[in-house]
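Archive entry. Fields below.
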Amino acid sequence: MPRDGEPPPPLIAFEGVSKVFGTGLAAVPALNAVDLRIDRGEFVAIMGPSGSGKSTAMNILGCLDTPTSGTYRFMGVDVGRLDRRRRALLRRRYLGFVFQGFNLLARTSAVENVELPLIYRGMAPAERRRLALGALARVGLEGREDHTPGELSGGQQQRVAIARATVTDPAVLLADEPTGNLDTRMSLEIMNLLVRLNREQGITVIMVTHEPDMAAFARRIIRFVDGRIDSDAPSERAA
Amino acid sequence: MLLEAVKLALQAIRRNALRSFLTVLGIIIGVGAVIAMVTVGNGTTARITADLAKLGTNLLFVLPGQVGPGRASSDARSFNSRDIEAMRAQLRGVQAVAPIAQKSVAVIYGTENRNTVVTGTDSAYFVAQDWALARGRGFFEGEERAGRAACVIGQTVREKLFGSADPIGQDIRVHNVSCEVIGLLEAKGQSSFGTDLDDTVLMPIRAFQRRIAGNMDIMRVYVSARNGVDTAKVQTDIERLLRERRNITTGKEDDFSVRDMKQVVQATAGATAVLTGLLGAVAAVSLLVGGIGIMNIMLVSVTERTREIGIRLAIGALEEQVLLQFLVEAMVLSLFGGIIGILLGLGLAVLATAALNVPFLVDPFIILVAFGFSAMVGVVFGYVPARRAAHLDPIQALRHE
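PREDICTED_STRUCTURE:
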């Protein structure tokens, strides 16, 4: 955590992060000594073919997984030294997740889905209902609060998922192929929403995608190949 | 958080209503069986205890032979009228000594006909049994001595033979003997062993011996002790007297037995309690089976909801929160089963006690135990699946299809 008089540590810092799955002859390297730094307020797209290590990098970024070697510091904290419980606490304090498959709870209304993270944080019902309705309004879903996922389009479901990920006011929003299951029109809606969240609420957005059109919405594009960063450059939009 | 967990559990159970019901069927049957068994058992015990009070605690039965395993009582000598006279003359602290001789015969009035046990006895019977007459009179001493065929009948016999007509003064045929009805007994209901006590015809023992039995045997003797007299003391006195009269030398076994009715009923009540406990234990085993059923379904449920658990873990649920959620779900499920089971068991007990004609007595303690036990089943058998859910790796869980 930042202390007075010192410059705040970078939000995200990979120092020689490697990840190997399996052991011995069956060992498969997924990340190979990756150095990476992401600061507050960035909008980063991570691209790369499957098997390039981008998903592994996302899991480590999201504190769901830990490096085999090297150090991952999140806000200056060495995540690799934290146990499962501390990583879970870190996740729920600072991170929001959006998935390709939306991953909403079925037969559960939009507002209840958005309330879920707040329930686990022990918030009082009235307060969390208020926050959930606010988050749904910010993603443009007023009037749909009581619809279940089955009654919503894919784009609307993803917006519910984004409301759920942002209702806790996270520092970082991690989006894994957020438009992978959506048609072009809905994809554009979602990307515009992410851009707005990034700009207006200052949420750092890190998004994995394989679609260059979507990556173009980010300000910075990182390309993974064979477990290494192949290129890391500002996007046309940033330029 | 607990409240939320209960709400989530109710949601999950409602979403899978049929499966949830089938899951807890084992608990329902187990708890229901325990409640029904224990309630009916308690009613039976209470009934027997009430009968004990009705009988009076001062009645002794004297029977020929020894009753018990491996002992033939049929060849033992019965009693005779001189035994009765001796007991009346020599026993102290006794209010009545009634001889009993019985035979099952046809009793006929007009076109109505019924097989009934006819008892030959004398007026001491009414005292010993503490049985009053509803109408008419008992036997006169002259009738007893002369062996006149006069009858006192029970309510069931009256109802079957006479319907609503007045039986007093009418002649009925008992076996081959014409017999005037002189008295009607008050209703007594069923004995603890389920026999109808009102299905009876009494006549003076001499008449019975001569005209129905064809011998002078006395099959049993009822002795009632005076209030406040120790029945054990009377029992010893009877035994001493009869050993002497029947020439049983020291060291030889009695060829008769004296039984305290109180002991008989207490033994029956004890046997009922043991049986109740045994049946309850068998039913408790089905609770165990029900618990395993819950564990099985909860394990399936965890596998099936792997993805959901992954979502919860990813959006900020801590392990202990997921553990609590699944534990509460198993507990709510088994408590549901417990409550339904308690209601079912009480319902069954109402029917069974009505059918067995015993009082319906609810024991709050056993309901509490059943409730607590079903909650415990939920915790014990829900723990393993809940821990499995809590320890899922969120990455793997989210990838799970």
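CURATOR_NOTE: The CA atoms of residues 95 and 196 of chain A lie 18 Å apart.
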